[in-house]
Each structure stands twice: as C-alpha cells, then as structure tokens.
Write a structure and sequence with these properties.
This protein folds into 2 domains: 123 residues, Roll (SH3 type barrels), CATH 2.30.30.230; 300 residues, Fumarylacetoacetate hydrolase, domain 2. It has 13 helices and 26 strands. Strands 6, 7, 8, 13, 14, 16, 17 and 22 form an 8-stranded mixed beta sheet that branches. β10 and β11 form a beta hairpin. α1 runs antiparallel to α2 and α2 crosses α4. The radius of gyration is 22 Å and the shape is globular. The model has no long low-confidence stretch (mean pLDDT 96).
Length: 444
C-alpha cells in the first residue's frame, strides 16, 4: 500500500549528489520525482530530479546497474512520456524507486558513482516537457472554502450548491491546452455580460484569474464499466504535480448557465514538470476528517483506509510577479499561502467518484483537485476570492502595485512542498505562467 514507509523515507539518508542536501532543496534523496526532458535537438526522454540535477534514465537503463522489475521500470520511465511507466503499477514504481535510491545514495560504490556521473545534467541546462501525453483531463471542485468564497460572489445569499457536501463535483477539461510550466499564453477572447447590462459584449477577458490547484496522475486505470472501489482507488494514483487552472471569470460566469465551464477554462492549464510520487509523499499522509455536523460520505465514498490516511500535508503558496517586478529585478510578492489538507474531498474519493458510473480512466490521465483555499482570507487560492469578486484591491507591496484581476505581463508562480520534523523535505518545484496581451481576433 502506498502509505507504507521503507528505507527510501529515512530522513537521515543522503546522496552523493551533494546539491540534494542543500538547505531548502525540493529534490532530496527521499523525493526522486519523475519528469521528461530534452537537451537541444535531442529526443525527449524520462528523468529523475536529484538536487539541482536531472538523472537521465535512458542512459541509466543502458548501464545494466539495475535488474529485474527495476530495470524494466527504468526502461519504461526512460521513454518520451511517462504513460507506459505509470501503467505498470505499484510494484514497478516501488522497484525503480528503491533501485534509484540505492544508486544515488551516499553509500553507493565509487564505481557506481563514476558510471552515473555522465548521466547527470544540470536542470538549468535542460528543457522540461509535459511528463505525459494528456489524453484526458478532469478538474474537480473540492475546497469548501473556495466554493463558499466564489459562491458569495455569484450567489451572496446561497453560496454553496446543495450537492457540494455529498459528492466531489467536477467537469471534463480540455487536454490539448495543458502546458508545462513556463509557457506563456495570450489573454483569451469571449463573451461577457456586465452587471446590469441587457446584452453581452465580445472581447478580451477583463477578469483573468489563476487557480492554485494540484494535479494527480492515474496509474493503471480501469476498464470501461468497471468502477474502482475507494479501497483500491488511492493506490491507483501514481503521483502529483502543481496545477494552475487559468480562468476567464467574466466569460466563465456568463457561459455557466446552465452547463459547466467552456471557454472560461479551455485556453490554458499549466502544470509543473516534475511528478512527485505518492510513495515519496507517504510520510505526509494525514487522516481525512469530516465535521460531525456535516453529511457523512455515502458508502461508496467511505473507507477506513481513506479516513486513516486520505489527506496530505502539503504547503502551498502563490507569488505574483508583475512586469514592474521584473524590470526592478524583484522576485514578486506572495499573495496567498495555504495547505492541501483543507480539501473537503480526498484524491481517492475523487478517483472513485470519477469511475463509479463506469468511466474508464487511462494511464497518465490528469485530474485536477480544484482550487485549494484555506479558512482565512490570506489562504484564498484565486484572485477572485482575494479581491472579493473584484471589489477590493490586492496589494503587491514590493512594487507598490494593486490588483483586482491579472494584468498583461503578470507572471503567477505556484510552489508546493512538504516539511516537518523527523521527515525529509519533499518539494514540487514550481509551476509558472505569464499573461501575454490578447491577440487580434478575426471574429471581432
């Protein structure tokens, strides 16, 4: 089971790749996240982050340092996408994690170090690609605090929909517009209905927003018509990343009558390039707790194992860096910070809900958790919450600017990490994207 700890979680373990021991390092010996990278014109292939380096798994697979299932898994993880590797399941994931942990450990032989050194490349000198071929993307809506905050903007007297506390709500997103961190995008066009107006207008989005989310990737998947029970669903998840579900709020609120998001969401979704495995996150599992006064999950969404370990202690933050910040060589301002443990539904419950009607998920499918907001004002995961629907300014102290929604040139940076006494730090790196001006639109 993915919640079990073994020697790869030993907080005292170190790597001969010395940067893995640097203060605040995301990619420690206990992490070993997977991604896909390329160098110049070379073909994309799988890699593992260790310190400030990328370990080229294609080269590792050719060395013969691994054996059996670990070698087979390494060959799959070395491909240009991680879909096949994710489909191999937990025994393969664990075998490769344990094998790589040994090869990168400070206890590795000099011969092993000499063989692997040419397989390491500085992360600053590679280009990160999407870790999977995203065939399907579904985005959930599972933060009670976010739902209440946004609901008050749309329906002040009745912010929470009747179904929210009974099932994990979701919509099917657009897989083709999922991009890797660092990809800029143009402000989208669409229809919007201004308050008090009698007809909509067509034009560039005026209420552009970010959404602080996490994504998770399906492992082996399930056959059409065969739901995944919650007791099994959690262990079908390979790993997690940071996700920004960019949102055109003026377009979204107008078009969501009566169906779900369409143009307000489909123009861009950014994800971080490194996938942190559920194995690496095992020390940071928490009990899933539902307030006693709230409806308890229906039987198919309830499981003792999920109640015991279904939640996760992941610190998250949002930094907004404007064009002025960059001109002044400033890092930007942190405008929000929260924790994933506040989510009302677990990722296991999301996966079980997705399949309960017989939907077949495929290896590498991407599922978003929905915006992650906490109980206080500074823990809001979207600017529509921070600005209370655009009625209040969000200050950027280091540049002296104010925001109610995103402006052209703004760069949003999401970060996430796990840290606590007695466990090694596990980081996700960052997920960033920059807003470019709207392009001329032929439809106008």
């Amino acid at each position: 089971m993915s919640g079990a700890l073994d020697f790869t979680h030993d907080p005292a373990a170190t790597s001969w790749v010395t940067s893995a021991q640097a203060q605040g390092c995301d990619f420690t010996q206990q992490n070993l996240p997977h991604g896909v990278f390329s160098r110049g014109a070379e073909a994309a292939r799988g890699g593992v982050a260790i310190g400030d380096q990328v370990l080229d798994l294609a080269q590792v697979a050719s060395l013969g340092l691994l054996a059996g299932l670990a070698q087979q898994a390494c060959e799959a993880a070395a491909q240009g996408t991680l879909n096949a590797y994710m489909g191999m399941g937990q025994p393969a994931w664990r075998a490769l994690r344990q094998g790589l942990f040994g090869l990168l450990s400070s206890s590795a032989t000099e011969a092993t170090r000499a063989a692997l050194t040419p397989c390491l490349f500085p992360q600053s000198q590679v280009q990160m690609r999407l870790p999977v071929q995203v065939h399907n993307y579904t985005d959930f809506y599972t933060s009670l605090h976010h739902a209440n905050n946004v609901g008050r903007v749309i329906r002040p007297d009745d912010p929470l929909t009747p179904n929210f506390k009974w099932l994990p709500i979701a919509y099917h997103g657009r897989a083709s517009s999922v991009v890797t961190s660092g990809t800029a995008f143009h402000r989208p066009w669409g229809q919007a209905m201004a308050p008090g107006a009698t007809a909509p207008v067509f034009g560039p989005c005026h209420r552009l927003d970010f959404e602080l989310e996490m994504g998770f990737f399906v492992g082996p998947g399930n056959a059409l018509g065969q739901p995944l029970p919650l007791a099994q669903a959690r262990d079908q998840v390979f790993g997690m990343c940071l996700l920004n579900d960019w949102s055109a709020r003026d377009h979204q609120f107008w078009e969501m009558a009566p169906l779900g998001p369409f143009l307000g969401k489909n123009f861009c979704t950014s994800i971080s390039p490194w996938v942190v495995t559920m194995e690496a996150l095992a020390p940071y599992r928490l009990p899933f707790e539902r307030p006693a006064i709230d409806p308890q999950p229906l039987a198919y969404l309830d499981d003792a194992g999920d109640r015991a370990q279904g939640s996760l202690d992941i610190e998250l933050e949002v930094v907004l860096q404007s064009r002025l910040h960059r001109e002044r060589q400033l890092p930007g301002d942190r405008i929000s910070a929260t924790n994933f443990r506040h989510q009302y539904w677990t990722i296991g419950q999301m996966l079980a809900q997705h399949t309960v009607g017989g939907c077949n998920l495929q290896s590498g499918d991407l599922l978003g958790t929905g915006t992650i907001s906490g109980p206080t004002a500074g823990e809001a995961g979207a600017i529509v919450e921070l600005s209370q629907g655009g009625t209040r300014d969000v200050p950027l102290p280091t540049s002296g600017e104010l925001r109610r929604f995103l402006e052209d040139g703004d760069r949003v940076i999401l970060r996430g990490w796990c840290a606590k006494p007695g466990s090694a730090r596990i980081g996700f790196g960052q997920c960033s994207g920059e807003v470019l001006p709207a392009l001329p639109n032929l439809a106008s």
